[in-house]
Amino acid sequence: xxxxxxxxxxxxxxxxxxxxxxxxxxxxxxxxxxxxxxxxxxxxxxxxxxxxxxxxxxxxxxxxxxxxxxx
Length: 71
Description:
Elements: E1 3-10, E2 13-20, E3 23-29, E4 41-46, E5 49-54, E6 60-65, E7 68-70
């Protein structure tokens, strides 16, 4: 299966959207990030685990379940 990832702001939060076939699931991190300041984003995928960390905070972790990512 082809997997692609996109990261963007949605309602002031960062969203890491994982696209797998016809499935699109996301992890969210942060709040009020549209504050005109720079932020550091770390995204990592290892096997069935996805991590999303923002500004040196603890990461949100998602695991692949069949063809989707869950929080």
